[in-house]
Protein backbone atom coordinates (compact mmCIF):
# COMPACT_ATOMS: atom_id res chain seq x y z
CA UNK A 1 0.00 0.00 0.00
CA UNK A 2 1.35 3.43 -0.92
CA UNK A 3 0.12 6.81 0.31
CA UNK A 4 0.69 9.61 -2.19
CA UNK A 5 0.98 13.00 -0.51
CA UNK A 6 -0.10 16.37 -1.85
CA UNK A 7 2.72 18.52 -3.33
CA UNK A 8 4.48 20.58 -0.69
CA UNK A 9 3.55 18.32 2.23
CA UNK A 10 5.94 18.86 5.13
CA UNK A 11 7.42 16.25 7.46
CA UNK A 12 5.42 17.78 10.34
CA UNK A 13 2.17 17.21 8.47
CA UNK A 14 2.92 13.52 7.95
CA UNK A 15 3.74 12.98 11.65
CA UNK A 16 0.17 11.98 12.68
CA UNK A 17 -0.03 9.49 9.77
CA UNK A 18 3.22 7.83 10.84
CA UNK A 19 1.88 7.56 14.37
CA UNK A 20 -1.29 5.77 13.24
CA UNK A 21 0.66 3.36 11.03
CA UNK A 22 3.31 2.60 13.64
CA UNK A 23 0.62 1.82 16.20
CA UNK A 24 -0.69 -0.82 13.78
CA UNK A 25 2.76 -2.38 13.40
CA UNK A 26 3.27 -1.24 9.80
CA UNK A 27 6.80 -0.86 8.46
CA UNK A 28 7.11 2.58 6.87
CA UNK A 29 9.33 3.65 4.01
CA UNK A 30 9.60 7.30 3.03
CA UNK A 31 9.77 7.72 -0.75
CA UNK A 32 10.91 11.18 -1.84
CA UNK A 33 10.84 12.02 -5.56
CA UNK A 34 11.71 15.27 -7.35
CA UNK A 35 8.23 16.68 -6.90
CA UNK A 36 6.28 13.99 -5.04
CA UNK A 37 6.46 12.47 -1.60
CA UNK A 38 5.01 9.08 -0.82
CA UNK A 39 4.79 6.74 2.15
CA UNK A 40 5.38 3.10 1.33
CA UNK A 41 3.97 0.50 3.73
CA UNK A 42 5.01 -3.08 4.32
CA UNK A 43 3.43 -5.68 6.59
CA UNK A 44 -0.21 -6.64 7.00
CA UNK A 45 -2.14 -3.63 5.73
CA UNK A 46 -5.47 -5.45 5.48
CA UNK A 47 -6.73 -3.76 8.66
CA UNK A 48 -5.81 -0.25 7.46
CA UNK A 49 -8.95 1.56 6.45
CA UNK A 50 -8.38 3.76 3.44
CA UNK A 51 -11.04 6.24 4.53
CA UNK A 52 -9.22 6.99 7.79
CA UNK A 53 -5.96 7.68 5.91
CA UNK A 54 -7.77 9.78 3.28
CA UNK A 55 -9.10 11.89 6.15
CA UNK A 56 -5.62 13.44 6.64
CA UNK A 57 -5.62 16.70 4.66
CA UNK A 58 -2.13 16.12 3.19
CA UNK A 59 -3.09 12.81 1.54
CA UNK A 60 -3.80 12.95 -2.19
CA UNK A 61 -4.62 9.29 -2.81
CA UNK A 62 -3.87 5.73 -1.80
CA UNK A 63 -2.74 2.87 -3.99
CA UNK A 64 -3.17 -0.73 -2.93
CA UNK A 65 -0.49 -2.96 -4.39
CA UNK A 66 -2.27 -6.13 -3.34
CA UNK A 67 -5.88 -7.09 -3.91
CA UNK A 68 -8.31 -6.71 -1.01
CA UNK A 69 -9.40 -10.31 -1.36
CA UNK A 70 -6.82 -12.36 0.47
CA UNK A 71 -8.46 -15.74 1.00
CA UNK A 72 -10.00 -15.88 -2.48
CA UNK A 73 -6.82 -14.70 -4.22
CA UNK A 74 -4.29 -16.95 -5.89
CA UNK A 75 -1.38 -15.11 -4.29
CA UNK A 76 -1.94 -16.73 -0.93
CA UNK A 77 -3.46 -19.95 -2.24
CA UNK A 78 -1.87 -20.79 -5.59
CA UNK A 79 -3.33 -24.31 -5.99
CA UNK A 80 -6.81 -24.73 -7.50
CA UNK A 81 -9.55 -25.42 -4.98
CA UNK A 82 -11.40 -28.62 -5.76
CA UNK A 83 -14.97 -28.61 -4.49
CA UNK A 84 -16.00 -32.14 -3.67
CA UNK A 85 -19.51 -33.29 -2.92
CA UNK A 86 -20.37 -36.92 -2.57
CA UNK A 87 -17.31 -37.96 -4.60
CA UNK A 88 -18.11 -35.49 -7.42
CA UNK A 89 -15.36 -32.96 -8.03
CA UNK A 90 -15.43 -29.46 -9.51
CA UNK A 91 -12.24 -27.50 -10.23
CA UNK A 92 -8.57 -28.38 -10.61
CA UNK A 93 -9.23 -30.03 -13.98
CA UNK A 94 -12.50 -31.65 -12.86
CA UNK A 95 -15.52 -30.62 -14.92
CA UNK A 96 -19.13 -31.00 -13.73
CA UNK A 97 -22.60 -30.14 -15.02
CA UNK A 98 -25.55 -29.14 -12.83
CA UNK A 99 -28.90 -29.38 -14.62
CA UNK A 100 -32.58 -29.18 -13.85
CA UNK A 101 -35.58 -26.89 -13.94
CA UNK A 102 -35.60 -23.27 -12.88
CA UNK A 103 -38.17 -24.16 -10.22
CA UNK A 104 -39.39 -27.33 -8.60
CA UNK A 105 -43.04 -27.61 -9.64
CA UNK A 106 -44.17 -31.12 -8.70
CA UNK A 107 -42.74 -34.50 -7.70
CA UNK A 108 -43.34 -35.89 -11.16
CA UNK A 109 -41.69 -32.89 -12.85
CA UNK A 110 -38.50 -32.83 -10.76
CA UNK A 111 -38.13 -36.60 -10.78
CA UNK A 112 -38.60 -36.92 -14.55
CA UNK A 113 -36.11 -34.15 -15.29
CA UNK A 114 -33.57 -35.38 -12.71
CA UNK A 115 -33.65 -38.89 -14.23
CA UNK A 116 -33.23 -37.50 -17.75
CA UNK A 117 -30.34 -35.17 -16.98
CA UNK A 118 -28.59 -37.87 -14.97
CA UNK A 119 -28.83 -40.26 -17.92
CA UNK A 120 -27.12 -37.61 -20.07
CA UNK A 121 -24.25 -37.09 -17.63
CA UNK A 122 -25.30 -34.31 -15.25
CA UNK A 123 -23.81 -34.99 -11.81
CA UNK A 124 -25.92 -32.53 -9.77
CA UNK A 125 -29.54 -31.46 -10.07
CA UNK A 126 -30.74 -27.91 -9.72
CA UNK A 127 -34.26 -26.68 -8.90
CA UNK A 128 -35.40 -23.56 -7.11
CA UNK A 129 -37.74 -23.89 -4.14
CA UNK A 130 -37.42 -20.27 -3.01
CA UNK A 131 -37.47 -18.10 -6.12
CA UNK A 132 -36.24 -14.50 -6.34
CA UNK A 133 -38.92 -13.21 -8.73
CA UNK A 134 -39.07 -9.61 -9.87
CA UNK A 135 -42.84 -9.62 -9.46
CA UNK A 136 -44.48 -10.61 -6.18
CA UNK A 137 -47.40 -11.92 -8.27
CA UNK A 138 -45.22 -14.40 -10.21
CA UNK A 139 -44.72 -18.00 -9.05
CA UNK A 140 -42.46 -17.62 -6.01
CA UNK A 141 -41.58 -21.29 -5.64
CA UNK A 142 -42.94 -24.11 -3.51
CA UNK A 143 -40.78 -23.19 -0.52
CA UNK A 144 -40.25 -25.94 2.04
CA UNK A 145 -42.48 -28.32 0.04
CA UNK A 146 -40.09 -27.81 -2.89
CA UNK A 147 -37.13 -28.80 -0.71
CA UNK A 148 -38.99 -31.99 0.26
CA UNK A 149 -39.50 -32.81 -3.44
CA UNK A 150 -35.79 -32.23 -4.11
CA UNK A 151 -34.99 -34.68 -1.31
CA UNK A 152 -37.24 -37.29 -2.87
CA UNK A 153 -35.59 -36.77 -6.27
CA UNK A 154 -32.13 -37.06 -4.67
CA UNK A 155 -33.11 -40.25 -2.91
CA UNK A 156 -34.43 -41.77 -6.14
CA UNK A 157 -31.65 -40.63 -8.49
CA UNK A 158 -28.64 -40.20 -6.20
CA UNK A 159 -28.04 -36.72 -7.64
CA UNK A 160 -26.94 -34.15 -5.04
CA UNK A 161 -29.10 -31.03 -4.84
CA UNK A 162 -28.18 -27.42 -5.69
CA UNK A 163 -30.81 -24.89 -4.65
CA UNK A 164 -31.00 -21.22 -3.70
CA UNK A 165 -31.31 -19.81 -0.20
CA UNK A 166 -33.13 -16.49 0.01
CA UNK A 167 -33.40 -15.88 3.72
CA UNK A 168 -31.48 -16.80 6.88
CA UNK A 169 -34.82 -18.07 8.24
CA UNK A 170 -34.12 -21.44 6.60
CA UNK A 171 -30.40 -21.83 7.34
CA UNK A 172 -30.95 -24.94 9.47
CA UNK A 173 -33.08 -26.64 6.83
CA UNK A 174 -30.57 -25.87 4.09
CA UNK A 175 -27.70 -27.09 6.28
CA UNK A 176 -29.54 -30.37 6.67
CA UNK A 177 -31.10 -30.96 3.25
CA UNK A 178 -29.07 -29.16 0.57
CA UNK A 179 -25.76 -30.35 -0.87
CA UNK A 180 -24.63 -27.10 -2.54
CA UNK A 181 -26.27 -23.91 -1.31
CA UNK A 182 -26.81 -21.39 -4.08
CA UNK A 183 -26.56 -17.67 -3.39
CA UNK A 184 -28.31 -15.99 -6.28
CA UNK A 185 -27.30 -12.92 -8.24
CA UNK A 186 -29.71 -10.73 -6.30
CA UNK A 187 -28.19 -11.72 -2.97
CA UNK A 188 -24.52 -11.64 -3.96
CA UNK A 189 -24.01 -8.58 -1.80
CA UNK A 190 -26.35 -9.57 1.02
CA UNK A 191 -23.42 -9.54 3.38
CA UNK A 192 -25.21 -10.84 6.44
CA UNK A 193 -26.60 -13.78 4.44
CA UNK A 194 -23.08 -14.44 3.09
CA UNK A 195 -21.66 -14.54 6.61
CA UNK A 196 -24.39 -16.81 7.92
CA UNK A 197 -24.17 -19.22 4.99
CA UNK A 198 -20.36 -19.17 5.29
CA UNK A 199 -20.63 -20.24 8.93
CA UNK A 200 -22.40 -23.43 7.86
CA UNK A 201 -19.13 -24.53 6.19
CA UNK A 202 -21.07 -26.18 3.36
CA UNK A 203 -20.32 -25.99 -0.39
CA UNK A 204 -21.72 -22.80 -1.92
CA UNK A 205 -22.48 -21.78 -5.51
CA UNK A 206 -22.06 -18.00 -5.53
CA UNK A 207 -23.59 -16.26 -8.53
CA UNK A 208 -22.30 -12.95 -9.85
CA UNK A 209 -24.60 -10.01 -9.11
CA UNK A 210 -26.64 -8.40 -11.88
CA UNK A 211 -24.24 -5.46 -12.14
CA UNK A 212 -21.33 -6.68 -10.06
CA UNK A 213 -17.71 -6.32 -11.06
CA UNK A 214 -15.34 -9.26 -10.82
CA UNK A 215 -13.68 -7.59 -7.84
CA UNK A 216 -17.07 -7.36 -6.09
CA UNK A 217 -17.76 -11.03 -6.82
CA UNK A 218 -14.41 -11.96 -5.29
CA UNK A 219 -15.09 -9.79 -2.25
CA UNK A 220 -18.44 -11.58 -1.80
CA UNK A 221 -16.54 -14.89 -1.92
CA UNK A 222 -14.17 -13.43 0.67
CA UNK A 223 -17.13 -12.99 3.05
CA UNK A 224 -17.94 -16.69 2.72
CA UNK A 225 -14.30 -17.73 3.12
CA UNK A 226 -13.64 -15.57 6.15
CA UNK A 227 -16.78 -16.95 7.79
CA UNK A 228 -15.63 -20.55 7.47
CA UNK A 229 -16.69 -21.86 4.08
CA UNK A 230 -13.84 -23.23 1.95
CA UNK A 231 -15.82 -24.96 -0.78
CA UNK A 232 -17.03 -22.17 -3.02
CA UNK A 233 -17.87 -22.22 -6.71
CA UNK A 234 -18.14 -18.89 -8.51
CA UNK A 235 -20.76 -18.57 -11.22
CA UNK A 236 -20.91 -16.07 -14.08
CA UNK A 237 -24.56 -15.77 -15.16
CA UNK A 238 -24.52 -12.72 -17.39
CA UNK A 239 -24.41 -9.07 -16.43
CA UNK A 240 -26.53 -6.02 -17.22
CA UNK A 241 -25.40 -4.06 -20.26
CA UNK A 242 -27.13 -1.80 -22.80
CA UNK A 243 -27.82 -4.84 -25.03
CA UNK A 244 -31.44 -5.98 -25.16
CA UNK A 245 -31.19 -8.91 -27.62
CA UNK A 246 -30.37 -11.21 -24.74
CA UNK A 247 -31.64 -11.27 -21.15
CA UNK A 248 -28.14 -10.48 -19.90
CA UNK A 249 -24.70 -10.29 -21.52
CA UNK A 250 -22.55 -13.34 -20.85
CA UNK A 251 -19.13 -12.14 -19.77
CA UNK A 252 -17.08 -14.99 -21.18
CA UNK A 253 -13.84 -13.22 -20.40
CA UNK A 254 -14.74 -13.57 -16.72
CA UNK A 255 -13.55 -17.19 -17.02
CA UNK A 256 -9.86 -16.54 -17.78
CA UNK A 257 -9.88 -13.36 -15.69
CA UNK A 258 -11.23 -15.17 -12.63
CA UNK A 259 -9.02 -18.20 -13.16
CA UNK A 260 -5.96 -15.95 -13.05
CA UNK A 261 -7.12 -14.09 -9.94
CA UNK A 262 -8.59 -16.88 -7.83
CA UNK A 263 -8.14 -20.54 -7.02
CA UNK A 264 -11.91 -21.07 -6.77
CA UNK A 265 -13.69 -23.06 -9.51
CA UNK A 266 -15.66 -21.06 -12.09
CA UNK A 267 -18.98 -22.18 -13.53
CA UNK A 268 -21.09 -20.64 -16.27
CA UNK A 269 -24.87 -20.37 -16.39
CA UNK A 270 -25.70 -19.95 -20.10
CA UNK A 271 -29.46 -20.08 -19.38
CA UNK A 272 -29.81 -16.92 -17.27
CA UNK A 273 -26.99 -15.30 -19.24
CA UNK A 274 -28.92 -15.43 -22.53
CA UNK A 275 -32.60 -15.90 -21.67
CA UNK A 276 -33.29 -17.95 -24.83
CA UNK A 277 -33.05 -21.71 -25.14
CA UNK A 278 -31.45 -21.65 -28.60
CA UNK A 279 -28.55 -19.56 -27.28
CA UNK A 280 -27.77 -21.97 -24.45
CA UNK A 281 -25.85 -24.46 -26.60
CA UNK A 282 -23.47 -22.04 -28.38
CA UNK A 283 -22.68 -20.16 -25.17
CA UNK A 284 -22.23 -23.38 -23.17
CA UNK A 285 -19.75 -24.68 -25.75
CA UNK A 286 -17.90 -21.35 -25.86
CA UNK A 287 -17.65 -21.37 -22.06
CA UNK A 288 -16.26 -24.91 -22.07
CA UNK A 289 -13.70 -23.89 -24.69
CA UNK A 290 -12.74 -20.86 -22.57
CA UNK A 291 -11.88 -23.18 -19.68
CA UNK A 292 -14.78 -23.07 -17.22
CA UNK A 293 -14.93 -25.79 -14.56
CA UNK A 294 -18.58 -26.55 -15.09
CA UNK A 295 -22.00 -25.43 -16.26
CA UNK A 296 -25.38 -24.94 -14.62
CA UNK A 297 -28.14 -25.36 -17.18
CA UNK A 298 -31.92 -25.06 -16.98
CA UNK A 299 -33.69 -28.12 -18.39
CA UNK A 300 -37.47 -28.61 -18.47
CA UNK A 301 -39.50 -31.49 -19.88
CA UNK A 302 -42.23 -29.06 -20.95
CA UNK A 303 -40.64 -25.63 -21.36
CA UNK A 304 -43.89 -24.20 -22.77
CA UNK A 305 -45.65 -25.04 -19.50
CA UNK A 306 -42.80 -24.10 -17.11
CA UNK A 307 -43.82 -21.88 -14.19
CA UNK A 308 -40.56 -19.97 -14.49
CA UNK A 309 -37.98 -19.33 -17.23
CA UNK A 310 -39.51 -21.62 -19.89
CA UNK A 311 -38.04 -19.49 -22.72
CA UNK A 312 -34.49 -20.27 -21.64
CA UNK A 313 -35.05 -23.92 -20.71
CA UNK A 314 -33.83 -26.64 -23.03
CA UNK A 315 -35.55 -30.01 -23.27
CA UNK A 316 -33.89 -33.19 -22.00
CA UNK A 317 -33.34 -34.23 -25.66
CA UNK A 318 -31.48 -31.03 -26.50
CA UNK A 319 -29.56 -31.36 -23.23
CA UNK A 320 -28.46 -34.85 -24.21
CA UNK A 321 -27.12 -33.60 -27.56
CA UNK A 322 -25.39 -30.70 -25.84
CA UNK A 323 -23.66 -33.02 -23.36
CA UNK A 324 -22.19 -35.02 -26.27
CA UNK A 325 -20.85 -31.81 -27.84
CA UNK A 326 -19.44 -30.60 -24.50
CA UNK A 327 -17.54 -33.87 -24.16
CA UNK A 328 -16.14 -33.46 -27.67
CA UNK A 329 -14.86 -29.95 -26.88
CA UNK A 330 -13.33 -31.18 -23.61
CA UNK A 331 -11.71 -34.16 -25.32
CA UNK A 332 -9.97 -31.90 -27.82
CA UNK A 333 -9.05 -28.96 -25.58
CA UNK A 334 -8.83 -30.44 -22.08
CA UNK A 335 -8.19 -34.18 -22.42
CA UNK A 336 -8.04 -36.08 -19.14
CA UNK A 337 -4.46 -36.91 -18.13
C1 LIG B 1 -31.42 -19.34 -10.60
O1 LIG B 1 -30.36 -19.93 -10.89
O2 LIG B 1 -32.46 -19.93 -10.32
C2 LIG B 1 -31.45 -17.86 -10.58
C3 LIG B 1 -32.47 -17.19 -10.10
O3 LIG B 1 -30.35 -17.30 -11.11
P1 LIG B 1 -29.70 -15.84 -10.89
O4 LIG B 1 -29.59 -15.64 -9.41
O5 LIG B 1 -28.39 -15.96 -11.58
O6 LIG B 1 -30.63 -14.86 -11.55
MN1 LIG C 1 -34.29 -19.51 -13.75
3D structure, described in words:
- The structure is a single chain.
- The chain has 337 residues and is of the alpha/beta class.
- It has two domains: 2-63, 2-Layer Sandwich (Alpha-Beta Plaits), CATH 3.30.70.1140; 83-333, TIM Barrel, CATH 3.20.20.70.
- 36% of the residues lie in helices and 18% in strands.
- The chain has helices at 11-23, 50-54, 107-120, 144-157, 171-177, 191-200, 214-227, 254-261, 270-274, 277-289, 316-333; strands spanning 2-5, 27-32, 37-42, 59-63, 83-85, 88-90, 96-100, 124-126, 161-164, 180-183, 204-207, 232-236, 266-268, 294-298.
- Helix 5 links the parallel strand 9 (161-164) and strand 10.
- Helix 3 packs across helix 4 (144-157) and helix 6 (191-200) crosses helix 7.
- It is elongated, with a radius of gyration of 23 Å.
- 42% of the residues are buried.
- The mean pLDDT is 95.
- Residues 102, 272, 298, 308-309 line the site of manganese (II) ion.
What order do the helices and strands come in, and which of them pair?
Layout: E1 2-5, H1 11-23, E2 27-32, E3 37-42, H2 50-54, E4 59-63, E5 83-85, E6 88-90, E7 96-100, H3 107-120, E8 124-126, H4 144-157, E9 161-164, H5 171-177, E10 180-183, H6 191-200, E11 204-207, H7 214-227, E12 232-236, H8 254-261, E13 266-268, H9 270-274, H10 277-289, E14 294-298, H11 316-333
Parallel strand pairs: 7-8, 7-14, 8-9, 9-10, 10-11, 11-12, 12-13, 13-14
Antiparallel strand pairs: 1-3, 1-4, 2-3, 5-6
Bound molecules: phosphoenolpyruvate (PEP) and manganese (II) ion.
C-alpha termini separation: 41 Å
Low-confidence region ranges: none
Which CATH first-tier class of the largest domain would you pick? Alpha Beta
Helix residue percentage: 25-40%
**Oligomer description:** single chain
The major pleated sheet works out as: 8 strands, parallel, barrel
- CATH superfamily of the largest domain, by name, is Aldolase class I
Instruction: State the total count of DSSP E strands.
Output: 14
Over the alpha carbons, how many angstroms does the gyration radius reach?
23 Å
Mean pLDDT: 95
- What bound compounds does this protein have? phosphoenolpyruvate, manganese (II) ion
How many separate domains?
2
User: Helical stretch count?
Assistant: 11
* CATH-level-2 architecture of the largest domain: Alpha-Beta Barrel
Q: Which fold name is given in CATH as the topology of the largest domain?
A: TIM Barrel
Name the overall outline.
elongated
